[in-house]
Structures are given as structure tokens and as C-alpha cells.
Amino acid sequence: MPGFELFGPEERKEVNDVLETGILMRYGFDGPRKGIWKSKELEAEISRKLGCGYTQLVSSGTAALTTAYAALGIGAGDEVIMPVFTFVASFECILSVGAVPVLVDVDETLTLDPEAVRRAITPRTKCIMPVHMCGAMADLDPLLQICKEHNLILLEDACQSFGGRYKGKYLGTIGQAGTFSFDFVKIVTCAEGGAIVTNSEQLYTKLDGFSDHGHNHKGADRGADLHPFPGYNFRISELHAAVGLAQVRKLDHFISLQRKSLQQLQSILSTVPEVSFRHIPDPDGDICTFLTWLLPTEGITRAVVAELKQQNILAGNFYWYEHNWHYIRKWDHLKEAASLYNLTDPQLKALAALANTKFTASDHIMSRCISTAIGLLWTEEQTREKGEKIVAAIKKVLDTQMVAS
Ligand SMILES: Cc1ncc(COP(=O)(O)O)c(C=O)c1O
Is 186 a known active-site residue? Predict the structure, then answer.
């Protein structure tokens, strides 16, 4: 990852098809487009690949989440349970539809701890949103069980994990809906883009309309469309879809390249007894974009991060605990409710409570973990070299600590 590392003639061919007709919009212009419908083709390709009923393309993963919330009827006052480790878009979208983000601890899957989810349920809970972080999956069975017991919606934020699987099913297709991002740093990229998948025709009709100002898309005359409800412009362009089409067809190849490098790196890091790894409920379903490894204490981890920096090999190794985008510790703008638009009273109350909540269990995990991003172009030799350098840095820190204690 990211997919742009392997752009080639396939992407150029799909884009040129669109440029030759000059029709860059996904709807209408039926005559001049001469049968070129890249967005529709990509939607069909994704549905076929993931084995799901329906795919709706949109302009980003953020648009995908917002569209999914709206179509699932999640709005003012409803509570959505989400993890403290994710990307900021997860709570931005919840706030934007008027709902309340309820943040809970992660476990060693690096996403929702089912017991923490149970404790967070109230009569206002409407949805549980696991985030399949860094290319691997939440343990969905216990979460599905909770949804069943409490009649809740399961929305999978699979923005980082397109092509991942859990017990034989593709991520995103297991809950009522799932979202993907095809932004520039994802395994499959079209510069900016996203998708929502579902098996419900009723939900799909809403996704389709909401992402295009509520158009019902019946018939060939766009101007004559009816608007059963208001929506937004979250449309993808034909140029973006064209790139995505070429990229999606390479997905399995990308995953197999990454799997090989990840396994090699993991076996090198495994030689250090103090290193453990993120719990992945279904390792065969990991798309292997990151190898996440854990050290025994926060002190050792911080020292290893400093050592990697000192040796100029920190790039590509992410210490999420200190990251501004991905972990709650740095989300002061959320905790301070620093919104440009007025928030509702339930939202303000929840954010005030959040500012005083400690996430000790998550801190214990996140303060000890480092994720190494896996490149698509790494050779065996380069992977070995990277692994050996990381191991040397870890051993240096461990030796220093032993001498000091
Ligand atoms: C977990 C998660 N959700 C949502 C998004 C939003 O996707 P986009 O950047 O396409 O808007 C991202 C983007 O990185 C993400 O990582």
C-alpha cells in the first residue's frame, strides 16, 4: 500500500476512455458518452468481488460514512458507539448528521472491545461502528451478537481495509452496511473516492439518492428526476472511477505482494522474545497493509521510537499513541467541542463527559504498539534490511534498559 505505487498502463487506458468522450460526470449525457460508464462498471466490479448485493460509489470515505448514516436513519440524538482508535472522519460524520459519538476502549484487535461496547449501551444507542484498522478486522461475531440482543445497526467502517475478510466474508458486507475509502494512501486508490456496500435494496436506493441531492435516478432525463428526500453532492467523477476500476482489478495482486513482505518482516521481528503482535481474529483475511507489533512497556516503546528516529528509519513506522489524527489523546478539538457549527445539547453533553473520561485499557495497548506500513515495491532484500534494522534498534534499547536496571 498505497495502490499508486503500482500505477501503470491499465489506469491510463481507463482514464483515456473517459477523456476521449469528454463526459466526466457519472450521470446523464447518455448519447455523447458512447457507452462509457466507469462508475457503474466499478460499482458492478466491487459488488462482484465482495459478493454483495449493491455498491454505491461516492467522492470519499468521509462521504461514504455520512451517506451511510443518513441512509440508515441515524440522526439527532441517536448514539453511535465507536472506538477511540480510528481516523477523525469517524466522529466528524457522526456529528454532522446530529448524532452523538460514544467512544469506547479498544482491545488487542485495535478496535472495539466487545465488553466496553456492552457497558456503553443506553436506550439511545442506535448503531455500533467497528473500524477495521490498518488492513485487519474487528472480531465481528461478539459485536454481531450484541447488535442482535439489543436490536442495533452494525455499520462497518472498512475504509482502511478494502479486500479484507472475516471468516470467509468480505469486510463491509457483514453488517447492514460497510464503507470504504479510495483516497490517495489506500490499497486501492482513485485519488479521492469511497464506496458503501450493502445487501439491502431498500438501503441502496437511499444511498444512491442521498449521494446525489436526493435524485431518484428513474429514467434517462436527469432534469425530470423526482426527489423523495433531500441529499448532498457526494458524487464521484468518471475520471476517479476510471482509476479505481484499474486498481480494483489489481487488488489480489497487491494483497499477495504485501502478505509476502509482511510475513517476512514478522518472522524477523519474532526473533526478539519481547516483541508481540496485534491480535488478528482471522489472519487469512488480513490485507497486510501494516504489521503492528507491541513491546512490553510504554517506556521501552518510546525509547525504540526515539532510536528509530535517531537512525533515520522512523518513516513508515507509526506510533499512533502520539499521532494527531488517529488516537483520542490528541483529539482536543473533539473534547473541547470546537465545532464551527452549533452542536446539539446531547452532543455537547457527551463531549463534555468525554473530556473527563480515561481510556486506561486503550492507553495500555496503544502506548506499546508500533505499526510498520508495508510497501508494494519492497524486494525480499529490502524487507530483510528493514527488519534487521528495526530488530537492532529494539535490542539496543532493551540492552540499555537491562544495564540501567
Ligand atoms: C478509518 C477511516 N474512516 C474514514 C476515512 C475517511 O476516508 P477519506 O479520506 O476517503 O475521506 C479514513 C481515511 O483515512 C479512515 O482511515
Answer: yes
